[in-house]
Amino acid sequence: MNTLGKIFDKKAIAVIRSKHEFEALKFIETIIEGGISCIEITMTTPNALAIIQDMHKEFGNSIVLGAGTILSVEEAKKTIDAGANFIVTPISDFNLIEYVKQQNIVVMAGAFSPTEIYNCHVAGADIVKVFPANSVGVPYFKSLRGPFPNIPMMPTGGVTIENAKEWIQAGANAIGIGSTLFNDKIVIERDLPKLKFNAEKITESLKNINY
């Protein structure tokens, strides 16, 4: 199964963002043990590039590894060279989309309005990242499925352990889940049991969904 197929199959992408340095491999291993194997490292995290390199070396093809908060072609190139299987950007940068597609790498482009969503799709984005999803909620996302039944979309921002299933039922092909899974409190307290519990809850909630 290719990268995109794996993302659609697993449905959840763990978005790793922190202001603090942390034992990346141990935390990622814990998330994987909890059932989530699609991992996005945001470039706002300290030593993000080194984390991506280490994860690629340690886990190889056993996970789907992505780089997030990519804002330029230069950043995309560095993270792809480091081993990223997919690129996530919060913006609608068509030059960036084109570059990543030329590398045969999955790209998720950020959009908010129907026009931005459509334009990102036409520009070649494999998935349109609807962001920030918490500003409009599930009803807005569900309404988008009317005019855009075939555009792959993923909400990020506002997705929680409690409402993850609801987003999928509203038509999301996948979800990006960050602070309710992995946050600075967990990092500071090195609360791996809580992290595993969170990952397991998300994984369980996305099983056997009725649309």
Characterise this structure.
It is a single chain. The protein starts with a helix and ends in a 6-residue tail after the last helix. Helix 2 links the parallel strand 1 and strand 2. 44% of the residues lie in helices and 17% in strands. Helix 2 packs parallel to helix 10. The protein has 10 helices and 8 strands. The chain has an 8-stranded parallel β-sheet, sandwiched between helices. It has a single domain, classed as Aldolase class I (TIM Barrel), CATH 3.20.20.70. The chain is globular and about 45 Å long. With 211 residues, the protein is an alpha/beta fold.
Find the count of extended strands (DSSP E, 2+ residues). 8
Q: Biggest β-sheet: count, sense, barrel?
A: 8 strands, parallel
**SS-based class:** alpha/beta
CATH class: Alpha Beta
> What is the succession of H and E elements?
HEHEHEHEHEHEHEHEHH
CATH architecture: Alpha-Beta Barrel
Classify the helix fraction into a percent range: 40-55%
Envelope shape: globular
What's the tally of helices?
10
Distance between the termini: 23 Å
Query: Within the largest sheet, what's the order of strands?
Result: 7-6-5-4-3-2-1-8
Strand content: 15-25%
Low-confidence stretches: none
CATH superfamily annotation = Aldolase class I
CATH topology: TIM Barrel
| Rg on CA atoms, Å | 16 Å
How many discrete structural domains?
A: 1
Mean pLDDT: 95
